[in-house]
Amino acid sequence: MARSPATGRSRRLAFALLIALAALLAFAGSASAGIITPESGGSPNADEISSLYKLVLAVAVVIFVGVEGCLFYSLVKFRARKGAVAAQIRGNTRLEVGWTVGAALILVVLAAFTFAKLGDIRNPPNSGPGGLQLADNGTFFASGPTKKLPPNGRSLNVCVNGQQYIWRYTYANDCANAPLGSPFSYQQMVVPVETTVTLTINAQDVAHSWWIPKLGGKFDAIPGYTNYTWFKIPAKYAGTTFTGQCAELCGRNHANMTATVRAVTASEYEKWLDERKADIKAADEAAAEQRKQIEQETP
Amino acid sequence: MAATTEQALAPVPQIVARRVEPARTGWTSWVTTTDHKRIGIMYLVLTFVFFILGGTEALLMRLQLSQANNTLLDPKTYNELFTMHGTTMIFLFVVPIMAGFGNYFVPLMIGARDMAYPKLNALSFWLLVAGGLVFYGSVFFNPPECGWTCYPPLSSKAYLPNGGVDAWIFLIHLTGLSSLVGAINFYATIANMRAPGMGWGRLPLFVWTILTYAILLILALPVIAGAVTMLLTDRHFGTHFFDASNGGSPLLWQHLFWFFGHPEVYIMVLPGFGIISEVLPVFARKPIFGYKAIAAATVLIAFLGLLVWAHHMFSTPSPTVVLVFFMLASFLIAVPTGVKMFNWVATLWRGTIEFKTALLFCVGFIGTFLIGGITGVFLAVFPVDWQLTDTYFVVAHLHYVLMGGAVFGVFAGIYYWFPKITGRLLSEGLGKLSFWLMLIGFHVTFLIQHSLGLDGMPRRIYEYSDVGHLELYNLISTVGSFILGIGVLVTAFNVIRSAKHGPIAGPDPWKANTLEWFTTSPPPVNNFDVIPRVRSVEPMKDIRRQVERQMGPTEASPAPVAESAVRA
Question: Is residue B455 annotated as a catalytic residue, yes or no?
């Protein structure tokens, strides 16, 4: 094997690979979400997931370029030529131990990244100063270890219930014993910005999965189980509607089981809640009136 | 060839035949056969038919998704299609086609005259036929529409009262029995019927993977058999195993299903790894790099594969410690898988690579499977998985693993072993055309699906509105799927044409390493008149060298000199 041209060429090749790698990483940083990175921006947990994803992506790109590079280099360099004789190598213990340990080390790094980010993704922060003023509701939720509350124990809780093929939201703290007349809505959840919103997720018929990509990951709604997550929408998104849809096959109209979250300011939220309460009360009274009428008409 | 072994001269006990039955011909000879080679051929043909059916179902789905808010298919039909596609590809194509290759080649590669239990072998095949018929029979009534995972409560009688789910349950039972019987047969064959001298350290790597495949099937199948039986009794006999309103647990199903379902992934890809490990060294004209490491990695992957099932359930209500355990276990599996990738690349390194179609599929496999492996690491990081699971990112990942890992391996196997099975060579020109169509079609179809998932498209939806780039991405994917489909058909045409008209192959067209090339193509009913003593992991290389010593170098061309390595 001629030494010098080969090293020259491999140096050029390595240089080209590095350039490609840098370009890819720059692209990863600047590319809009939804092409090579997950959507984020609506809540700190979604942002943290996205940045964890980018760390994994950076490691992945290096491995990808390295292995595909070696593969294509071998295919070009070692294709059969007249007079070429294959080296009869059966293995190399030092090399093999080396890449086994190397692969393991990369995974240790990835695990470290994950643990570093995990707290911020799993644990809800306190609401901001511009958020809704909340009463202490920490004591209500001593029930399960999976329910996470902000450090000050205050969050706006929404009970999310999956049903074929719509989401129902009850605005109450204790979902198992929500008081009668608790405000509720279907399909569109309305929440105040700068406020930590905790979700208690259930399903009443088949399994569903709650997912608003910009507000964080998916959490399955499974009959007989309760799942929890949270989000906190920054103040600048007041007036924005975030969209998502059920992510677990739940039957024929699974595709149409959409969900939206409309972020509003704290005062708008309180106004909306009062309107809902009044609307629901009026509807209940109207229904009671109708029942009375039917009772009178049919002896 | 018989002269190559000393054992040929040893006295053989006399067998007096009263009557010699003439060899049977016609279709009854196929229906009644217990010959592992004929059963193997029937497996390969039948499973390929299912592959075409499953592929057609996929193309129909891609047509529906090519446009936003498309009305080509109604939601019921769409749900039936993805259920049938997944179930067909897994239970009626990938798992049994590996059994087909195993059936044909394990006895030949270990120098045996048949499988240990020939009649059970026939039973395996006919149970598979029964499973396929029961399942596809539902096309005339109500096919299942719960996805290949059939999660309750959706799959319970309350939500899917018609017989589709029951047809699916029977398919799982019948194909499960088929695989279980086959697995026991493989295990017994490999453990007991190896050629003299073939210790565990000289077992061909494909046979190692089939052995591991068999053990995994034996461990995983009883669990799914139990689970679907529970589902059956829930549906018809008043039990409530998975019914939350009566004290049952829908999550129990998910645990049982994935305790089977994840090993099933390795059941599907490990034999593909085995084929790659056989084909690469032959066309690189180099021994496999790190034989022991590859064999050990196979066993280690299988073991770890039993410990990662809940990474399919990261978004279910689970304590953090469980999530962390299954993340780390899934990471661990990347190590032996990475070792295999490095060993394959190192096998090519400093070889003299002959670009036959079989090798191209191997290389396509390595390049493609790498992406599937890497996206698997993304999914193992459970907070990232919360964003990616149940989206098209997962659809892309699983197709990179199963198409890149299993199907490209299968196609490498088809191009490599077809001459042994039929005695004729496949057309290299058509083969290469098929390879490039499949490779390009595959990546056009599935690479963009990662972006679909990142852009917020969940799996298993029959329609979507055109937000973001969803319509563009979906259209690209649909175009790719048809290129891929044409690529598969080119190979199907190649196989049908070459079986009659291909050039005669001779016993050892590739100058290969393993014992199946020692006998004629196609092999006689008893495979070998004389079984040679095995002295290394590459017995055919030894035999060629011996022949060369006895007959002079002109007759047989030794492997390392790349004399046939021209214009590939």
Answer: no
Yes or no: is domain A138-297 CATH 2.60.40.420?
Answer: yes
pTM (predicted TM-score): 0.91
CB B275 within 8 Å of CB B342 = no
Our separate counts of H helices and E strands in chain B read: 17, 0
> Do B76 and A48 count as a contact with CB atoms less than 8 A apart?
no
**What is the domain partition of chain B in residue ranges?**
32-551
Catalytic, B312? Answer yes
Are B335 and A74 an interchain contact pair (Cβ–Cβ within 8 Å)?
A: no
Q: Which residues of B touch A50 (CB under 8 A)?
A: 387
Strands A184-186 and A166-170: antiparallel
Options B47, B66, B88, B179, the catalytic residue: B179
Residue B7 DSSP code: G
Q: What is the DSSP string of B346-404?
A: HHHTTS-B---HHHHHHHHHHHHHHHHHHHHHHHHSHHHHHHHTTBHHHHHHHHHHIII
Whether B266 sits among the annotated catalytic residues: the reply is yes
> Residue B391: its chain A contacts at CB < 8 A?
247
**Would you list the domain boundaries of chain A?**
9-78+93-122, 138-297
Contact of A246 with B459, CB cutoff 8 Å: no
Parallel, antiparallel or unpaired: strands A184-186 and A188-192: unpaired
- The sheet with strand A184-186 has its strands ordered as A184-186, A166-170, A156-163, A196-203, A227-232
A123 reaches B (C-beta below 8 A): no
Using DSSP's 3-state secondary structure scheme, residue A202 falls into strand
Q: Which candidate from A56, A67, A213 shows the least CB-CB separation from B378? A: A56
Q: Exposure pattern of B484-508 as b/e (b: 16+ CB <10 Å)?
A: bbebbebbeebbeebeeebeebebb
Residue type, B360: L
Give the residue carrying structure tokens 């048809």: B482
- Work out the number of other CB atoms within 10 angstroms of the CB of residue B287: 21
Mutation target for B interface from A254, A257, A261: give the one with most B CBs within 10 A. Answer: A254
- Tokens matching residue A213: 């990509």
Residues in chain A with CB shorter than 8 Å from the CB of B371 are: 64
Q: What is the pLDDT along chain B (568 residues), one digit of tens a residue?
A: 444 444 555 566 666 667 777 777 888 889 999 999 999 999 999 999 999 999 999 999 999 999 999 999 999 999 999 999 999 999 999 999 999 999 999 999 999 999 999 999 999 999 999 999 999 999 999 999 999 999 999 999 999 999 999 999 999 999 999 999 999 999 999 999 999 999 999 999 999 999 999 999 999 999 999 999 999 999 999 999 999 999 999 999 999 999 999 999 999 999 999 999 999 999 999 999 999 999 999 999 999 999 999 999 999 998 889 999 999 999 999 999 999 999 999 999 999 999 999 999 999 999 999 999 999 999 999 999 999 999 999 999 999 999 988 999 999 999 999 999 999 999 999 999 999 999 999 999 999 999 999 999 999 999 999 888 899 999 999 999 999 999 999 999 999 999 999 999 999 999 999 999 999 999 999 999 889 999 999 999 999 999 888 887 554 444 443 334 333 3
Q: How many angstroms separate the CA of residue B312 from the nearest CA in chain A? A: 12
- Which residue from A64, A224, A255 is facing B461, i.e. has the nearest CB? A255
Cβ–Cβ < 8 Å for B54, B92: yes
- The residue in chain A having the minimum alpha-carbon distance to the alpha carbon of residue B68 is A255
Exactly one of B36, B459, B541, B544 is catalytic; name it.
Answer: B459
B32-551 has CATH 1.20.210.10 classification: yes
For the question of residue B318 being annotated catalytic, the response is no
Cβ under 8 Å to A: B residues 323-342: 327-328, 331-332, 334-335, 338-339, 341-342
Taking the C-alpha atoms of residue B477 and residue B475, their distance in angstroms, rounded to an integer, is 5
Query: How far apart are alpha carbons A211 and A224 in whole angstroms?
Result: 19
